[in-house]
Amino acid sequence: MERTHHRSGDKALLIYDLSKAPEMENPMDSNSGTTGNTLFIISEVYAGSAGLDDHWKQAGENWQDFGALNEWMAHCKVTLVNGAPIQHSLW
Question: Counting Cβ atoms within 10 Å, is residue 66 exposed (0-12), middle (13-18) or buried (19+)?
Fold first, then answer.
């Protein structure tokens, strides 16, 4: 993504985060046990919708493992929120 994504302008990728954590039995209680599942959270924030459109274009055209990701996701519980506008940010 560093090689293919814009860092300025209306297509700019402003934030990219990848997190990994065990799924908790009770997410509101850090002392609860885990379910045995692993959660992966990817958060990407673009300057505008043009950046998201460009992201999917780049994935399809330039990422050789895009198909493998789709196959892997077929075996997982996946929630994808595509293009949700930021409602509030502290900074």
Answer: middle
pLDDT band at 42 (very low <50, low <70, confident <90, very high): very high
Amino acid at 82: N
User: Which residues share a beta bridge with 17?
Assistant: 43
Q: What is the dihedral of CA 91, 81, 46, 3, to 10 degrees?
A: 120
Q: Is the dihedral of CA 72, 78, 18, 55 positive or negative?
A: positive
pTM of the full predicted structure? 0.81
pLDDT at site 2: 86
pLDDT, position 91: 80
| Helical ranges in the chain per DSSP H | 49-62, 66-73
The Cα–Cα gap between 14 and 49 comes to 12
